[in-house]
From TrEMBL:
Protein name: M48 family peptidase
Domain YgjP-like metallopeptidase: 91-162
PANTHER family: UNCHARACTERIZED PROTEIN YGJP, UTP PYROPHOSPHATASE
Alphabetized Pfam families for the sequence: YgjP-like
Gene3D superfamilies from the UniProt entry: Metalloproteases ('zincins'), catalytic domain
Highest rank taxon of the organism: Bacteria
Length: 187
């Protein structure tokens, strides 16, 4: 997930003659792309860019849990699914985990979650956090470990979601289609 826009971040405005009324925006790498109708004035463009940057920032901040909120979330999940037995000393987001979703050091009571989870559904983030909490109680992935996760109703769904993300990452990337690429006759 991208950070909210800061002064100086790249914003690309794409005008389309096919777009009549709608305005949309999304993150593309290190830039924000705002799609607007071609007939829009420069003043309207500036206003809509501001509106759309604000909307994207609000969406992204709603999806993000801070480290303090993570420890609270961990306590709730431990209480609900592990009888409160797992009590981490720290839970935090990290940016250096690109092949793992999370990690745990039981001796220190520390849990680290990959920043890549931040844009994923809540039940997936909860599963990974619960998985790491279970490691505070059982270090390996044996039967006793998996028994601890049986009570979480979305374990299989979350694991399938994460497997899909990994598989999708192996697919070749297709060039993004642009409104401008299609001619007025649809070719």
């Amino acid at each position: 997930m991208s950070d909210p826009p800061r002064a100086g971040d790249a914003v690309e405005v794409r005008r389309s003659s096919r777009r009549r009324r709608t305005v949309s925006a999304y993150r593309e790498g290190d830039r924000t792309v705002v799609l607007i109708p071609a007939r829009m004035s420069k003043a309207e463009e500036r206003r809509w860019v501001g509106v759309m940057l604000g909307k994207l920032a609000a969406q992204e901040s709603r999806r993000r849990l801070g480290d303090g909120e993570l420890i609270e979330r961990a306590a709730r999940l431990s209480a609900q699914y592990l009888g409160g037995a797992a009590r981490p000393a720290t839970v935090r987001w990290v940016t250096n985990q690109n092949t793992r979703w999370g990690s745990c050091t039981p001796a220190e009571g520390s849990i680290r979650l990959s920043h890549r989870l931040q844009g994923m559904p809540e039940y997936v983030r909860d599963y990974v956090l619960l998985h790491e909490l279970a490691h505070l109680l059982v270090p390996g992935h044996g039967p006793n470990f998996w028994r601890l996760l049986e009570s979480y109703p979305r374990t299989e769904r979350a694991r399938g979601y994460l497997e899909g993300v990994v598989a999708a990452g192996r697919l070749p990337r297709l060039p993004a289609a642009r409104d401008e690429d299609a001619g007025s006759d649809g070719q």
